[in-house]
Amino acid sequence: MSTLKINNLQVEIEGKKILKGVNLVVNSGEVHAIMGPNGTGKSTLASALMGHPKYEVTEGTAILDDENLLEMEVDERARSGLFLAMQYPAEVPGVTNSDFMRQALKAVSGKDVSLIDFIFKYEKNAEDLKMRKDLPHRYLNEGFSGGERKRNEILQLKTLKPKIAILDEIDSGLDVDALKIVGNNVNDMISPEFGCILITHYQRILDYIEPTHVHIMIDGKIVLTGGKELITKIDTNGYEWVKEELGIDF
Ligand code: ADP
Ligand code: MG
Ligand code: MG
Questions:
Q1: pTM value?
Q2: pLDDT, tens digit (0-9, with 9 covering 90-100), for 119-140
Q3: Which atom of ligand 1 sits closest to the CA of residue 44?
């Protein structure tokens, strides 16, 4: 079993404080949904944990299985078992999707990966995600539709098999069929060895990936934690009631 422990995490971007003390404990086997209005720091949390240089951690800790993530380089964080599916996956012209994936797998596992084994697994995963056949040979994310990029992030997830994954709005830009495929593929991964943080605005992805915990983030902090009942409440009432209930202004 793995545990990610985030304690009083405070993060600045270009001198502006975005995260104001985030506390969160995620065990493998668990699914933590983080919901919240736009611009409250959800993606900042994801980027800071992965070590994006623009995000300066000014206080707090993030520990994955007794290893201090904040002292690690980006590639070390990935090797330690953390994974981020990005809200806006970037294009990487000149690098084919399958080459990228094989290199990433080599880097993360620290082992040489035989081409035959790799292709076999890659094709199986691509098929599970009902991806187009030409995808492995195309440059990473180049000309991919929004939905194809999201599926490709999940293909990486299935290939790399991290301990804890942060999935940042993997539901945005997906039609209902794609949403179901992506949701079911992530859900199938949940095990005593794998847990995830699911950042989302919408209830619909949570129909396929059932959260064990639901957190509401407002203005750089997790202000409320509960179970699935929070999702319906947010879906029908937005976030205004949170403000009233907690007596906070944002
Ligand atoms: P969310 O994911 O909850 O919508 P973000 O974490 O993306 O919110 O953004 C939180 C705040 O930080 C916003 O005010 C946003 O404009 C700012 N921010 C995020 N990333 C950057 C960046 N790379 N440069 C400058 N400001 C940023
Ligand atoms: Mg957003
Ligand atoms: Mg975001």
A1: 0.94
A2: 999 999 999 999 988 887 899 9
A3: 6
